[in-house]
């Protein structure tokens, strides 16, 4: 039996998992590391913490099982996207990595957009220039730390720094590179045109591979450290969203994942490149070779439900402690007593602004239709439905782009609730499947390694073997009619309220 490691270089820590050649999870290990915020809206990490965390996560994983470590034949990498690791000509880190959630680069986003042109950027990269992306970070270094900028020899994404530590090779993959604002997404290669427009050095950027392709082998000293052989392949891997989609089975036309975690992500497979020139959704290369994905992101999905629990759920939290249950479970049991529509109560889930479809940092949450008859259980139901309407916004844009939606894979914390799965099926009006994806992107990375080693002929067959469906929910057409009526009101509320969002933000609180 051969084994594969999947490594996820996350924001809070590194996760390593071990799977066998049938795609069965054998072991896992996690090692946390710090995130630094030296100034407001800044977010940085030390790449050496990632490397130490990776080593510890691998060690914990392998120490927890009794297998022949020489039978580990492949490693797949994934991790947080967009982060910038700047290396000098000795391969040394110049400064702490600037992360995906860092917001210091608003000025640089405007500067890059002006230089390249918004229409050209959308046509080539498929996305507007955003503060979290990589190119603005490079320009920020140029504008604010010129001595560091002059020392740049290579720029790597987070998982690719770990690849360098494991193999000594500089490489990336098409899905992760898509989020740099420097990549030609339709042609699946670095954009010489954008790089030239920005007067950056093309040699700074590593060779780019399709996700299952082999980029190198474990260095001998690293293999010896873990008791493995030095013929272990390391494949290109993918960004966390694309690798997570592999682990969810989103690898053919008609498949979409709906993830309700802190944020909400709708991830749709596409056989061909499709770009929303309005910039409401992202278009990236998929980790499936020669394929793409379109992704919508709402900022406060599960985050809205957590806010509700913390503000109105004290009674449920106390009861949950007594009954050894989850407070969310008790809240959803209360919401299940309410008919669809929450007795006319609609929730706009813009608690932290919004990204898809409105891209409005000033947007705020709203309860609309509140009356004296409304009770807590109707408020809970309204929050669950409002978040799902926000997810549906992405579905509507994806359909508008001509991308088919046949089946939806529900993942994240929201997928654990039978009621929320049913609400999603009824609002999206498509069959909803719950799949086993507790290990998320790391599982997808391990499957990519298995494909790279030749255990599976392609990514699609790897997913067919390894991805397990746990539950199926089918939509109720009558409830769908009711939800369609409410959704039309939901959609009309944002433009009606938009002028007031910025006005209230201008008041000092």
Automatic annotation (TrEMBL):
It is an enzyme of class 2 (transferase). The keyword ATP-binding applies. The record marks 8 as: Important for activity. Residues 3-247 form the Carbohydrate kinase FGGY N-terminal domain. Its EC number is 2.7.1.17. PROSITE patterns: FGGY_KINASES_1, FGGY_KINASES_2. The keyword Transcription regulation does not apply. HAMAP family: XylB. Belongs to the FGGY kinase family. This is Xylulose kinase. The lineage of its organism: Bacteria, Pseudomonadati, Atribacterota, Atribacteria, Atribacterales. The gene is xylB_3.
